[in-house]
Design goal:
The structure is a single chain. With 295 residues, this protein is an alpha/beta fold. It has three domains: 86 residues, Winged helix-like DNA-binding domain superfamily/Winged helix DNA-binding domain (Arc Repressor Mutant, subunit A), CATH 1.10.10.10; 93 residues, Periplasmic binding protein-like II (D-Maltodextrin-Binding Protein, domain 2); 105 residues, D-Maltodextrin-Binding Protein, domain 2, CATH 3.40.190. It is built from ten helices and twelve strands. Strands 3, 4, 5, 6, 7, 8, 9, 10, 11 and 12 form a ten-stranded mixed beta sheet that branches. It is rod-shaped, with a radius of gyration of 31 Å.
């Protein structure tokens, strides 16, 4: 059923103000345009709502019965439209962002701090998960935007580069390489390396970049999560090659991160959006802050 809001609004204005002239002025219409709206509404409803003479306008019996409901409809719609405009102007509301764990603790906190200061009443839900599930969350609509690692091109996904971060060598401060300003891939002792699972996007990317340089590494240990690798390094089990953001300064006393060179390998962190999908005002505001800081 098509609802003629303009016609109903015109009817209510005429009924409340007592005439076409004042109603036309309030609605910023000519009296001719206002008359057309009433005629269109009455034609659609199949009933007369107003009896009009050259000197006066009166509600018909049907018009008197319809007026309270029409007024309620106009008020409700006007309030709903006003709320939407306020939402758009102020960026108020809640949203969800999916993010790989290292970026949830490395890149997002500063942006969230700025966002919270600007929009103190808003609530952000963060899905900190692996790169595959970050993309899946954006595709399914579970999250409006994602922060993750580039993957194979997808027709519904848009990736925007945010920052580059290097892979680092992590070891205990007692390790023989700990005193060096940088280490090379040739320095690696495979017997003590803790490797991330070959199913991880990080591992696939790292192996690919090293293969281009004719470098291949095998570790004595393999884990699923970066946090597990850092835990093992902290316990003195071995060493690891991980993104720089894996460990925040001071988070693991005794664990060092040392630049890897020859070659240096960096991963790209991207903003992930769904193509042809408009972000909600609060998500759009967050997206703009994120890009302003990193992109």
């Amino acid at each position: 059923m098509k609802i003629d809001f303009d016609g109903i609004q015109a009817f209510v204005a005429i009924a409340e103000l007592g005439g076409f002239g004042k109603a036309a002025e309030q609605l910023h219409l000519t009296q001719t345009a206002l008359t057309r709206r009433i005629q269109k509404l009455e034609d659609y409803l199949g009933v007369k709502l107003l009896d009009r003479t050259t000197r006066s306008v009166a509600l018909t019996a049907v018009g008197r019965e319809f007026l309270p409901r029409a007024k309620g409809f106009v008020v409700e719609m006007s309030e709903a439209i006003g709320n939407l405009k306020d939402l758009s102007r102020s960026g108020r509301g809640d949203f969800c962002v999916a993010c790989v764990p290292t970026m949830a603790s490395h890149a997002l906190p500063a942006v969230i701090s700025d966002y919270s200061a600007a929009y103190p009443g808003n609530r952000i839900r963060i899905l900190d998960t692996n790169a595959f599930d970050v993309r899946k969350a954006v595709l399914s609509g579970q999250a409006e935007l994602g922060v993750g690692i580039p993957m194979d091109a997808h027709p519904e996904i848009l990736e925007i580069s945010l920052l580059e971060e290097p892979y680092m060598f992590f070891c205990r401060q007692e390790h023989p390489l700990s005193a060096q300003g940088s280490v090379t891939w040739a320095d690696m002792r495979e017997a003590e390396l803790i490797m991330i699972s070959s199913l991880s996007v990080n591992r696939v990317f790292l192996d690919y970049q090293l293969a281009k340089q004719g470098i291949s590494l095998r570790g004595a240990y393999e884990v699923q999560h970066l946090a597990t690798a850092i835990g093992l390094v902290a316990a003195g089990v071995g060493t690891a090659i991980l993104p720089a953001s894996t460990l925040q300064a001071g988070a693991r006393p005794g664990v060092l991160s040392i630049p890897l060179v020859g070659p240096q390998v960096q991963r790209t962190i991207v903003l992930i959006l769904r193509r042809n999908t408009t972000l909600s005002p609060p998500a759009q505001a967050f997206c703009e802050l994120l890009r302003a800081r990193y992109a």
